[in-house]
Amino acid sequence: MARKCVYCGRDVNDDRSMEICDICGEKVLGRKMFGAIKTQTDEARDKGDLCSTNMAPDFLSEKLKI
Ligand SMILES: [Zn+2]
User: Fold this and answer.
1) How far is the centre of ligand 1, averaged over its atoms, from the C-alpha of 47 (Å)?
2) Number of domains the chain is built from
3) CA-to-CA distance for 17 and 46, rounded, in angstroms?
4) Which range, of 30-39, 42-51, 52-61, averages the lowest pLDDT?
5) Which member of 5, 44, 56, 58 lies 3.0 to 4.6 Å from 10 by CB, making a disulfide possible if both were Cys?
6) 10 CA distance to ligand 1 centroid (A)?
7) pLDDT tens digits for 49-66?
8) 22 lies in which domain range?
């Protein structure tokens, strides 16, 4: 099942734990920050800490006050 970016609706890679595409992620967070969060969430998912992939956008929205 293809997932969509929460900002622009573009398809997001299935191997990503966040539902945010590279373009929006870098625009909203900045390249460095987005890269760091991407790494963190992917690592957490790989370890099994991230129960739901839906948690990532909520976490970001709260952080960014969107
Ligand atoms: Zn997007």
Assistant:
1) 26
2) 1
3) 9
4) 52-61
5) 5
6) 5
7) 655 555 555 656 666 555
8) 3-64
Q: CB within 8 A of 15, min separation 6: which ones?
A: 42
* Count of C-beta atoms within a 10 Å radius of residue 58: 11
Instruction: Name the pTM for this structure.
Output: 0.57
Q: What are the b/e assignments for 9-48, b being 16+ CB within 10 Å?
A: eeebeeebbbbbbbebbeeebeeeebeebbeebbeebeee
Structure tokens at 42: 């992917």
Ligand 1 being an ion, which residues bring their Cβ within 5 A of it? 5, 7-8, 10, 21, 24
* CA–centroid distance, residue 48 to ligand 1 (Å): 25
